[in-house]
Amino acid sequence: MIKRIFILLALLGLVLMFLPFLKDFDFHEELSDLSSQYVEGSIKDLNTQNVVTSVIVTYRGLDTLGEVTVLFLATAGVGFLLRKKKASLKPRRSSELLQTASQFLFVLIILTGIYIFTHGHLTPGGGFQGGVLITTAFLLLILADVNLKFNHSILHFVESFSGAFYVMIGLFGLLLIGMNSFLDPAILPLGKFGNLLSAGAIPIIYSLVGLKVGSELTTILDKMGGE
Amino acid sequence: MIFSLILGFLLLIIGLYGMLTQKNLIKIVIGFSIVDTGTHIIIVSIGYLRGRTAPILDGAVDLANATKQVVDPIPSALVLTAIVIGLAVTALMLSFVIKLYQKNKSLSIDDYQELKW
After folding, report:
1. Residue of B97, B40, B91 whose CA lies nearest to A139
2. Which of A25, A48, A55 to mutate to test the interface with B (most CBs of B within 10 A)?
3. Is B73 within the bounds of a domain?
4. CB of B25 within 8 A of CB of B99?
5. How does pLDDT run across B31-41, given as a tens digit for each residue?
6. How far is B21 from chain A (nearest CA, A)?
7. Fewest CB within a 10 Å sphere: which of A2, A57, A227, B31?
8. Where in chain A are the domains?
9. Is residue B115, in this structure, part of any structural domain at all?
10. What Å distances lie between residue A9 and A16, A72, B109, CA to CA?
11. pLDDT at B98 over 90
């Protein structure tokens, strides 16, 4: 009982802490200087339609690299914890409907995922969303057959290849453009605004992020699938 | 939107309450996910600007005047990455739960006294 009172008191304190922020919160009418610089730079310097993509891949590219590393660490943690060889389960056979539909939908979902991460600089979407979508295709396969074995060497190859290539594109920026241009997408021609082949290296970087996220989350699914 | 801001804080409080009161480990993880979602909603609604469109410069936006027509792209970018990280961290927590259950055959937090003082 006394514990519950303490919990409620703590939450009440939190509410009191947030309340001034909520009361005095006034919405901006204009973009901040940094944001408007990002929007203008996205038009002038990067030729990228999707400003969120240019923030993630270019202006805050180093953060995204760190974030991919965090994702890798989480995957490594899951793999470390659940490394024991999973016992072959004898589950109830999934229905005929699910088995047929999963094979039919698998290709379509993978294609949609690839579309989303290659068009990340034009439309809403990008590497992270596309990668998660690709993972759902593999989830469907696992649902249809729990004892499904993935080819681990291919998964690991795709993951490490995309990670290494991502860093290499960043280093090309240093090599070809000069100091302070790690992960600069201008190493490739910027193309025409709004075309698929535009925005320099951004589509390539985002595709690599998509492949990396997809393969990492699929590894997590594979590890957790048997539990 | 002030409403989405309030909703975000409400979700944050509900999630924290769930994390503090529930005994089941999986329910604690669910509470964490709710806190996660609450913070995402708060961050996105901070970047909202009245009457503007998404920061995607297609036909709906006049390129010469783009800074006057789009919402703040930075909070969206932050949340986009935070969602994926939240997913991975949740997966990591759930695998800890699986390991704990395999070792002690219990999902109740009361059966784990090692860190209690």
Report:
1. B91
2. A55
3. yes
4. no
5. 999 999 999 99
6. 7
7. A2
8. 33-225
9. no
10. 10, 38, 22
11. no
Max intra-chain CA distance, chain A: 67
Looking at this predicted complex, what is its ipTM?
Answer: 0.79
Q: Is the pTM of this model over 0.90?
A: no
Whether B56 maps to a domain, the answer reads no
Dig out the tokens for B107 from the structure: 């999902």
Q: What is the pLDDT of residues B52-93, one digit of tens each?
A: 777 777 777 777 777 777 888 888 888 988 888 888 889 889
| CATH number of the domain where residue B21 is located | 1.10.287.3510
* Enclosing domain of residue B9: 2-49+68-110
What's the pLDDT score for residue B117?
Answer: 65
The verdict on residue B38 lying in a domain is: yes
* Torsions phi, psi for A126 (to 5 deg): 155, -165
DSSP code at position A92: P
> Domain tally for chain B?
1
Mean pLDDT of A73-90: 76
What are the residues of chain B with a beta carbon less than 8 Å away from any beta carbon of chain A? 2, 5-6, 9, 13, 16-17, 20-21, 48-50, 54-58, 63, 66-68, 70, 72-74, 76-77, 80-81, 83-85, 87-89, 91-92, 94-96, 98-99
What one-character DSSP code corresponds to residue A91? P
- In B, which residues are within 8 Å of A7 by CB distance? 17, 20-21
Tell me the two tokens of residue A193.
Answer: 């605004």
DSSP string for residues in B25-81:
HHHHHHHHHHHHHHHHHHHHHHT--TT-B-SB-STTS-GGGGGGTB--HHHHHHHHH
Contact across the interface for B88 and A220, Cβ inside 8 Å: yes
